[in-house]
Amino acid sequence: MSTRSEAQKEADKRYSKKIRGKYKPFIVNLKLEELAYIDEKIKATGMTKADFLRWAVEEWSKKQNNN
């Protein structure tokens, strides 16, 4: 196991301070098969998981507004 250098630790602290309060994790439990399928589809689009979630919510919102 590698040890983080002091410079890396300082960079971690700066990054943590920079993003503090701006983000919150979105956690979901999926079956392994579902996760593998979803990950495969997301990777094929070149999106990140966060990008995919934002896109999916936008598409869902559009669909709701059309009904």
List keywords for this structure.
single chain; 67 residues; mainly alpha; 69% helix; extended
Quick one: biggest sheet?
none
Helix content: 55-70%
Order of helices and strands: HHH
Quaternary status: single chain
Structural class from helices and strands?
mainly alpha
What general form does the structure show?
extended
What's the end-to-end separation, in Å? 55 Å
Gyration radius, rounded:
18 Å
Summed up, the helix count is 3
Q: What fraction strand?
A: under 5%
Give the rounded overall mean pLDDT: 94
Concise structural overview:
This protein has 67 residues and is mainly alpha-helical. It has 3 helices and no strands. The protein has helices at residues 6-19, 32-45, 49-66.
Please characterize this protein's 3D structure:
The chain is built from 3 helices and no strands. It is mainly α and 67 residues long. The protein has a domain at 29-67. The relative contact order is 0.06.
